[in-house]
Amino acid sequence: MAKEEIANQAIKHAFRALRKRHLNEEGAHAAAFAALSRPIVSQASEWKEKAESLEMELQQCYKAQSRVSEQLVVEIAESRTLKSVIQEKETAVDDLQKELTSMRDECKQMKKDLEDKINAHEIILSENTELKTQLEEMTIRAKSAEIEHKTLVDRMMLEKMKNAEQLNEANQLYDDMIKQLKASGLEKLARQQIDGIVRQGEEYADVILQSIVPSTCKHRLQAHEGGCAAILFECNSNKLITGGQDRAVKVWDTDSGSLISNLHGCLGSVLDLAITNDNRSVIAASSSNNLYAWDLNLGRVHHTLTGHTDKVCAVDVSKVSSRHVVSSAYDGTIKVWDLLKGYCINTIIFHSNCNALSFSTDGQTILSGHVDGNLRLWDIKSGKLLSEVAAHSLAVTSISLSRNGNVVLTSGRDNLHNLFDMRSLEVSGTLKAAGNRVASNWSRSCISPDDKNVAAGSSDGSVYVWSASKADIVGTLKEHTSSILCCTWSGLGRPLASADKNGVVCIWT
Asked: Average pLDDT of 465-489?
């Protein structure tokens, strides 16, 4: 507004100046006009020219006044435009000032956060230094423990050698006694006594091996956290051993459903279990690439069998000697171990991974089921392939040998369960059901101790029981709510046990 008032005052002042000049010029020319009024003819033309000249000068003054006015209007418009631009820039400056203040506050906060993080980093560094120190101390302790363990192993091997020498002496003494009995004519009497004891044992065995088709779930045990992929009974006992994804191996009383003991020391999921004939040692195949052997009486690991380079998925113990163990892993190898010495004595390499294993009844042959669907037989001493047969169109998941060793049961991902004659390797029976679906590559089926029935779990949570001779279903057990991974029958003929992916174990009678 101040600039507009100044412009208006300038215009008014210009008009006043022109008017004053005009009046002065009129006053100055008054004498001329008076002279002109005189009758002087000679000066008339001269004054006329002056009048015209003055009139033209007046017109030029008016034009100059018009141009000044237009210039003032333009300058006023420009001043208004500049004023609006200045206001916008002042607003932008205010916004930038506010943003600058906000950024300064944010910068202060970030500096504070940086200081806190630096302090936290220093604390972590100090903790890391302490942990390194502890690790070094633990490493030193571990090395000393390893040295001590090696010393103890050497002592144990020495004691075993002494025990073996004592056993050899006892055997020699026994041979001498037999020779004396032969010499004294008492051999016949001894044979009669021994034969009577064996016959009584066989009669008792026929009674306890009589299996029944189960129908009732006696106990439902939450055995493991996660899946339970391996279960087996102790030889001629109702004690059940289970292994799961929680790295635990547990022993259960199936009569009461109570936990007897918990075996620790496994560093991976338990994928398979085996037990020696004397029920002294249980061996676990683990996803940690190792096998672990526990002394059941002491509840401690007495051997860790190392040598596989991938997860160990199957294990079995010789039915003749508790000394030999066979295992297979997803590194393409089958290994034979001396459990007494604790190391590998033979390795078989094959292109197709092995999912399931079993020793023959004479302990001289290894039966293996592979991912390519074939059943193979190997010589334990030489490691040579003796024979093979296409058992399934998909991967073999389980191998189970009958009590007499004449029949082998195989299960596959093609949802079939085949019975093979061990002498000819020909299929003697095929078991299947509409709803039966094999749940995994390590789903285990089983034959009853009297070789009359076969049990297998399904992905629908059912346990199917077939008659081995008629190949028809004689029972369907429903209690599980998830896929069943394994089944096993007690050597006494009852009960039957099954385990699923949720770690639940059912005892069937």
From this structure: 94
